[in-house]
Amino acid sequence: MPINPPAYVLSVLHRLEHSGYQAYVVGGCVRDSLMGIEPSDWDVCSDATPEQMLAVFERRRIIPTGLKHGTITVRSKGHNVEVTTFRIDGSYSDNRHPDRVSFVAKLEEDLSRRDFTVNAMAYNPRSGLVDIFGGEKDLEGHTIRCVGEPDVRFHEDGLRILRALRFAARFQFDIEEKTSNSIRRNRNLLDNISVERVFKELQGILVARGAAGILAAFPEVVESFLPETRATFDSKAWKIKVFRIGAAPEESFPMRLAFLLHGLTPQQVKNTLVRLKSDNRTMRYVTTLLEELPKPLPITRGEMRKLIGRIGESMVRALLCAASILEGVEAVRASEQLLEETLATPPAYVLQNLAIDGQELMNLGVPAGPALGAVLQRLLNEVQEEKLPNEKGALVARSEELIRRQEA
Ligand code: ATP
Ligand code: MG
After folding, report:
1. Ligand 1 midpoint to CA 394 (Å)
2. Residues 349-377: what's their mean pLDDT?
3. CA distances (Å), 276 to each of 11, 137, 157, in order?
4. Which of 37, 69, 112, 115 to mutate to test the pocket of ligand 1 (most atoms within 8 A of CB)?
5. Which residue pairs, CB below 8 angstroms and at least 24 apart, start in 12-16?
6. Is 268 helix (H, G, I), strand (E, B) or coil?
7. What DSSP string runs through 366-403?
8. 377-401 pLDDT tens trace
């Protein structure tokens, strides 16, 4: 597939080259282009130092994003382009942050600090593809492989363990053997990574098309940052769990997360989500889903209405979707129909919605005053409880019955 940087990126490359510097698009955008995927953003790298870049681009077009790490953002034709100076990372005493970064003159050195071969390619229209680690071949072979020695690379930055899983899951690639052995061996390095970053990578893994395959292959990695799931790790239970995660809609991170935590006690689920620093929305979704799943599904419209009132329509839909994964589509078919019927029947939550009004009751012989109010309220209650349909004929008949009883 061709690599076609858009005009606003080409103009940044040209500008740098015009001033005598090297400039390439690099990383994810090259990988995605070669795969025929539209890149979400285009990163540029250059031998120009941040100071030199400040001299190349007009001040007003520059946002000094991360000068210390050599990154500036250039406004170009209405877009932002990140430009980073070629650099290598110094030593990593905390397995995550380089103690310092050093700017270098050669593209090759910059490529060698990158995590995986498929992420370590650069391109510019004059020199074409620069691929010194066999990234293109690994793309063709659907392989995630570390640049350099996997043990060394994971020790530098433990987050790469989850990045490998995420890219493999996203593209449905295999993780090359040396790299995957190293991932298993070094999984405890994730202990050094902030929980926010772990949670973000977990999210990326779970919403990926190949999430199930990767989770099935690396349970011990999940266990290393989610020790709470250990009890559910015997291989049959794990297989079922992973199957359910894969069956949940791809875009639904919280449903997939709920299946990952399914089987824990409600307290464990809560503690785990708090520890992972989950946002409140995800937390509410996951806990609600896991609380409701074991309960019997509503059978009457009244029960369905109450459930909707309690957790909301979209959560009811999520619940039915999750229940269909647990118990099969047949088991929820009736509830799905009940949900649609319930939503299609206008709810008579207030007197104004009742299909009969005071005037009509007076015509039937109910005297104005407290008696009239009492009959209306009674009708409303019975409609809400689904003992009575909210239809004129039925309401008239029931009113006549109530009037007769009052007279008796
Ligand atoms: P995505 O589409 O998920 O953004 P990406 O490849 O652009 O994928 P980024 O996290 O945006 O990933 O990083 C951009 C590039 O920087 C990567 O392609 C890789 O070359 C390099 N990189 C990012 N994080 C690391 C890391 N932890 N270790 C080594 N190289 C990294
Ligand atoms: Mg990116």
Report:
1. 66
2. 85
3. 42, 37, 19
4. 115
5. 12/44, 12/74, 12/76, 12/81, 12/83, 13/44, 13/124, 13/125, 15/56, 15/57, 16/44, 16/46, 16/48, 16/53, 16/56, 16/83
6. helix
7. PPTTHHHHHHHHHHHHHHHTTSS-S-HHHHHHHHHHHH
8. 899 888 877 788 888 899 999 998 8
